[in-house]
Design a protein that fits this description.
The chain is built from 9 helices and 16 strands. The protein is an alpha/beta fold. The chain folds into 3 domains: 86 residues, Elongation Factor Tu (Ef-tu), domain 3 (Beta Barrel); 107 residues, Nucleotide-binding domain of ferredoxin-NADP reductase (FNR) module (Rossmann fold), CATH 3.40.50.80; 68 residues, no CATH class. It has a 7-stranded mixed sheet, sandwiched between helices. α3 packs parallel to α4. It is globular and about 50 Å long. The protein starts with a strand and ends with a helix. 45% of the residues are buried. Bound molecules: flavin-adenine dinucleotide and FE2/S2 (inorganic) cluster.
Amino acid sequence: MNQILAKRPLAPEVTLFEIEAPRIQRRWQPGQFVMVRPLPTSERIPLTLVTSDAVRQSVTIVVQAIGKTTKELAALEAGDAVADFVGPLGEAASTTKGERVVCMAGGVGVAELLPVAKAFHDASNHVTCLCGARSDNYRILDAELREAADVVEWATDDGSFGFHGNVVQMLLARNKPGDFTVGHVIGPIPMMKAAAEATRSWGLKLYASLNPVMIDGTGMCVGCRVTVGSEVKFACVDGPEFDAHLVDFDELARRNRAYRDMEQEALQHQCRLQKVE
Ligand SMILES: Cc1cc2nc3c(=O)[nH]c(=O)nc-3n(C[C@H](O)[C@H](O)[C@H](O)COP(=O)(O)OP(=O)(O)OC[C@H]3O[C@@H](n4cnc5c(N)ncnc54)[C@H](O)[C@@H]3O)c2cc1C
Ligand code: FES
C-alpha cells in the first residue's frame, strides 16, 4: 500500500509523485493535505494533495527538496512505498460562485494552487492565476493550470519569462481595485504577507493557505498555532486556509524560524552520515 506509481521531475529540486492511495483518492478535497513519512526512520511532513485519478486509485503530491525529510522523499523511486501516508487532513479550500477570482502562488505553491484554481473554475468563477518562479526553468504545471483557469500569467525573479519581478508586483502593475472580488494566495510567508497588504483596501476577500511547521497534523501538538484576528487557530485542523487580511504573518515567520537551527543540524547530520557510507 502507498506504493509510488510514478515519479516525474518538474523543475530543479521539485518532483511530482503519483501514489497509490484508494481511500484518500475517494475522499480528498482541494486545499487538503497529507502527512507523509517517506522512510520508517523519517519525520512526518505535510504535503498538499494536488490531483487524483479514480481509475488508478491514486493521488499526486509535489515536493520541493529543501531539508532532510523532503530530500528523503525525493530520493524514493517508482516501485518504492512510502512508510506513512495519512489523510486527507485539514479543511477544504473555500470556493464561491460567479465571482472574479485571483489565485496567486509562488514557487512550489503553484502545485498547491492547482486544485484550488480548478475548484473555483468548476464552480463557475472566472479564474486568473498569477504565478511566480525564480526563473523560466523553475516554472511548474503550466499546462495543467491553463486547463484549470481562464487566465494564467507568470512572473519570474530574473525576467526570463513573463513579468520581471514577483507575483505581488505583477498584481499591482497589471490590476486595480475592483478587478477581482475573491482571491487565494499560497507561497512563502513574505509573499503572502505582501499580497494581503497590497489588497487590504481593495474590498477583496483574500484567503491564504498557511504553511506553519506541523508535527502531528491532527491538532495534538500545538506546533501549527497561528493567530487570526484575535483568535488562536491550529492550521492543521482549523485551516490551513484563513482570511489573509487577519493573519499575523510576522508571528508565523517567527515561529517557523524558531526550528531553523534544529533543521540545519538534522540536515548536516544526514550529510555526514552519507559521507561516511
Ligand atoms: C499544509 C502544508 C502543506 C504543504 N504542502 C507542501 C507541498 O505540497 N509541497 C512542498 O514541497 N512543501 C509543502 N509544504 C512544506 C513542507 O511541509 C516543508 O517543506 C517540509 O516540512 C520541510 O521538511 P524538511 O525536513 O525537508 O525540511 P526542514 O529541515 O524541516 O526545513 C528546511 C527549511 O525549510 C523551512 N521550512 C520547514 N517547514 C516549512 C514549512 N512548513 N513552510 C515553509 N518553510 C518551511 C525551514 O525553516 C528551513 O529553512 C507544506 C506545508 C504545510 C504546512
Ligand atoms: S500540527 Fe500539531 S496541532 Fe497542528
